[in-house]
Amino acid sequence: MFGEHGFFILACYGVSALALGGLALWIILDGRSVRRRLNEMEARGVRRRSAGRSDA
């Protein structure tokens, strides 16, 4: 199908798929971590500047 370079081509596709899958997993796990840290900070009373001030 790919001729004499078939193994190289399929290996490149495989490495690319693994790299993209790893990056997607990293983004998902990092997003969960950031969301968890934000929730912990908000539970301690730390508020975001964009949330506005209640005493203003």
From TrEMBL:
InterPro entries: Haem_export_protD_CcmD (IPR007078). Its main location: membrane. It is a single-pass membrane protein. It is found in: Cell inner membrane. It comes from the Bacteria. Required for the export of heme to the periplasm for the biogenesis of c-type cytochromes. It comes from Ancylobacter polymorphus. This is Heme exporter protein D. Belongs to the CcmD/CycX/HelD family. Keywords: Cell inner membrane, Cell membrane, Cytochrome c-type biogenesis, Membrane, Transmembrane, Transmembrane helix, Transport. The chain crosses the membrane at residues 6-29.
